[in-house]
Amino acid sequence: MAQVLLKNIAKYYNKTKVIEELNLSIKDQEFVVLVGPSGCGKSTLLRMIAGLEEISDGELYIGDRLSNELEPKDRNIAMVFQNYALYPHLTVKDNISFGLRATKMDKQEIEKRVAHAADILGVTHLLDRKPSELSGGQSQRIAMGRAIVRQPEVFLFDEPLSNLDAKLRANMRVEIKKLHQRVKTTSIYVTHDQVEAMTLADRIVILKGGDIQQIGTPMDLYHTP
Ligand code: ADP
Ligand code: ADP
C-alpha cells in the first residue's frame, strides 16, 4: 500500500498537450475515481502511472519513490482492464498465477496466493476451467485475481466493468467495494458510470481537457441541497 503523488504532471503527444500541469495527491489506502468526458485524458493518466506511457513533464511518486523512469514491472502496480485478456489455452488457475510464475517466487507461495485470491473473489470452484467456459462476470473476476495475487501497492482500474450488462455491473461494483474494504490497496479507478463513482470513491476527480475541473467526496460533488 502506498500514496501516489502527481506533481505538475504533463503529457504531450508531439506538440499537443493532453494533460496540463496536473497536481494530485492520493493517500495510502484511498480509493480515487477519475471521471470526465471521452478524450479528457483519463486513460493517459492511468497509463503514465502504470509506466505504459512516458511522462512528458513533472514528477510521479509511488510511495516515497520517484517513479517516472521505473519500468512497469518495477512499479509494484497492478492494472485491471475492461477486456480481460485471459490466455485461452491456460486454466483459470494458471491465468491467475501467470505473472507470479514469471518471477522466482516459490510454488507453495504462489499456490497460497492463488487460493487466497480465489477465495476473496468466490471463484475457487472455477480454478480448473478454461476461459471459454466462463461468463463475462467470471472472466472479470479472474482478471482481478491476477491483479490481487501480485499484492501490489496500487491497483489501477481502466473501466473494468464497461463490458458487462447492468446486473453484473451492479454485482461486480459491490465485489470491488468489498475487495477494497478487505485489502485496502490504494486504488485509482476510471469510469463513465456515475453510480460506480458514487459507490466506490473516497474522492472523485473530474477531469476536463487534461486538467482537474473538480475534486471532492461523492457527497461534496453530487449532493444537491
Ligand atoms: P480518455 O481516456 O479520457 O477517453 P485518453 O487519455 O484516451 O482520454 O486521451 C486523451 C487525449 O489524448 C485525446 O485527445 C486522445 O485523442 C489523445 N491521445 C491519446 N493517446 C494518443 C496517442 N498515442 N497519440 C496521440 N494522441 C493521443
Ligand atoms: P479509451 O477512451 O477507452 O481509452 P481510446 O479510443 O481513447 O479508448 O484509446 C484507445 C487507444 O488508442 C489508447 O491506447 C490510446 O493511447 C490510443 N489513442 C487514442 N487516441 C489516439 C490518437 N489520437 N492517436 C493515436 N492513438 C490514440
TrEMBL record:
Keywords: ATP-binding, Cell membrane, Membrane, Nucleotide-binding, Translocase, Transport. It comes from the Bacteria. The keyword ATP-binding applies. GO terms for molecular function: ABC-type transporter activity; ATP binding; ATP hydrolysis activity. GO terms for cellular component: ATP-binding cassette (ABC) transporter complex, substrate-binding subunit-containing. Residues 4-225 form the ABC transporter domain. This is sn-glycerol-3-phosphate import ATP-binding protein UgpC. It comes from Paraglaciecola arctica BSs20135.
